[in-house]
Amino acid sequence: MQKPGQNIEFALKETSPKIGAGAVTGDKLSNTYDLVEQMHYLYVRVMKAKELPGKDVTGSCDPYVEVKLGNYRGMTKHFEKKSNPEWKQVFAFSKERIQASILEVVVKDKDVVLDDLIGRIMFDLNEIPKRVPPDSPLAPQWYRLEDRHGRKVKGELMLAVWMGTQADEAFSDAWHSDAATVGPEGVANIRSKVYLSPKLWYVRVNVIEAQDLIPHDKTKFPEVYVKAMLGNQTLRTRISQTKTLNPMWNEDLMFVVAEPFEEPLILAVEDRVAPNKDETLGRCAIPLQNVQRRLDHRPLNSRWFNLEKHIMVEGEKKEIKFASRIHLRIFLEGGYHVLDESTHYSSDLRPTAKQLWRPSIGLLEVGIISAHGLMPMKTKDGKGTTDAYCVAKYGQKWIRTRTIVDSFTPKWNEQYTWEVFDTCTVITFGAFDNGHIPGGSGKDLRIGKVRIRLSTLEADRIYTHSYPLLVFHPSGIKKTGEIQLAVRFTCLSLINMLHMYSQPLLPKMHYIHPLSVLQLDSLRHQAMNIVSARLNRAEPPLRKEIVEYMLDVDSHMWSMRRSKANFFRIMNVLSGLIAVGKWFDQICNWRNPITTILIHVLFIILVLYPELILPTIFLYLFLIGIWNFRWRPRHPPHMDTRLSHADAVHPDELDEEFDTFPTSRSSEIVRMRYDRLRSIGGRVQTVIGDLATQGERFLSLLSWRDPRATTLFVLFCLIAAIVLYVTPFQVVALLAGIYVLRHPRFRHKLPSVPLNLFRRLPARSDSLL
């Protein structure tokens, strides 16, 4: 799995975890959680208590429950003056860390100085029943409380105690002994959670015209434009070319909006009365709940909306309703896919409208098993520590594993499933350090990211690999650990999956009514902001820095390293053509006479039997494909440091990549980088100029810009037409091929006559200033 020239430390490693898939365990867990290792837990569900005796002077009690197992203890919240409290809380103790044989459940009365014991219940761990889903949940029972000497006392506690696994329904909501150091207020920030991205729509506002506007300055015709606002998005039309009181625009404005629609679309007609001064001639607010939804390219009916205007009367705003109105065609576009992530790593390509979705073609199952070798991300009590959790994003579904507190080798063993509608999509995993628990920095730090493209996976095969977690720092590339994943793609319909390869990548509307590149970039930025804002409002929140990292918000920013990487990717693509050109040059120069003679024979056969040309080409491609099947990739692709030019990047280029936008560096550094960009731009400019020169020389063959060259070319075309008309094509092809493949003895090093003529043709570079 190590690529040539790549550091073995950054390589992908195949692993053999003890997962349930393929194992005969006789356990029902193997059918549901078969991509993760089984983790056994002792669960304690504390439901409620009744008839608790009063311990205070007033005869009341402030009860809470403490669950103790060896050195681990979990506590419920306490209630003020309540003898029949309800907690409905679950505690989970990892069996790996259990060192005691007795479980103690204690009911206490909260006091200022020392909490009083109300009663307790003891359980022998050897007698606790085992439960594995899909068995029904264990019914809670009433237990009579006992004092320290084992005597029954007043009060009862309803409990359920069982041994289970992470497949248990109570697992995600439980207090975990792994996070014993996290107080009750921090538990919500460490639980696993499934999130859904908001449903995004494009809003198209076709501004047609306005009527009966009343400008403030009646002495001149207004210079009117329309300003549209939706949330934080603001767009404007051009100033109308019809300088009348009935201006026309017929312009489209595009916005992104998420369900549920929280804010109306506000349109304001404004008059440019001075270079930096605009006056509002009227405005209207349109609730998006009432807007029509369009599923295809057929036009919808337009509508007139009245414009309202406010004036100041004695310091108060008063609304004036007048006949000024605006003509709009406004609708929600359901036929587009709202791009909210980088197009190179899209995880979903479906249109917004659900009725346009095709049936799913498969299931993606992922087991997030563990991580190891994590680096300390923060310092707590004088020592380095990491509180790691993992986030995965595919389609509209985001998942977040629970946080494993203070561990460099966290074990999550959580399994999740996604429906797959297109294999040409990417699932993204990110590992983070939780900074929102006691002692945290208040910001979740990046540990690393992994992407897996589904089309590179074989159906029904389980991939178990350890992926390197790599992060760029101002000091260079760093490996922050490894994450172990188990991935399985299950195909539900082979025919539907293969048919998908013949379909357009994006919904039809992207091709029938395409959006411009600038529009798409702006809309993608707005969509990312909306998604991050909505997920940041969830509980626990999926914070902005996490969402932006997962969606690659900064992928469009300039980076010298990425530019080099893309340049060498192009050179790698062209290397095949260059290799064929070198091979053909060796054939023409008779470096290997036997090969050249065989090529002569093959060429003569193809000229004499031209109907064999296409079958020969396709047969050759087929044989190459079959030959390469033996060395097909058996492992999913991963982050390649060599391809990314991350292993030998210059410190200044790294500093530039981490610079803010706009820049925060000193003027000397900015000047140096600007000069460097100018030099690179100069080289690019020269190459583009050379390409333009060659194209203009080709066009000047018949333009008579050089009358002598055009005369020669026109005469050559006439003679060639006559010769080719009377000579069979096969003879011409045979003679041309033999001339090209002639022996070096019949060649000379000077350029050919056609090339000499071409290089002497004029180009428009002479006219450049």
UniProtKB/TrEMBL annotation:
Subcellular location: Membrane
GO cellular component: membrane
Residues spanning the membrane: 597-627, 712-741
Keyword annotations of the record: Calcium, Membrane, Metal-binding, Repeat, Transmembrane, Transmembrane helix
Principal location listed in the UniProt entry: membrane
Membrane topology: Multi-pass membrane protein
A molecular function (GO) term: metal ion binding
Oxidoreductase keyword on record: no
CDD domains found in the cross-reference section: C2B_MCTP_PRT_plant, C2C_MCTP_PRT_plant, C2D_MCTP_PRT_plant
Residue ranges of every copy of the C2 domain listed in the record: 23-143, 184-305, 345-467
Keyword Hydrolase carried by entry: no
PANTHER family: MULTIPLE C2 DOMAIN AND TRANSMEMBRANE REGION PROTEIN 5, PHOSPHORIBOSYLANTHRANILATE TRANSFERASE ISOFORM 1
Protein family per UniProt: Belongs to the MCTP family.
Name assigned to this protein: C2 domain-containing protein
Lineage: Eukaryota, Viridiplantae, Streptophyta, Embryophyta, Tracheophyta
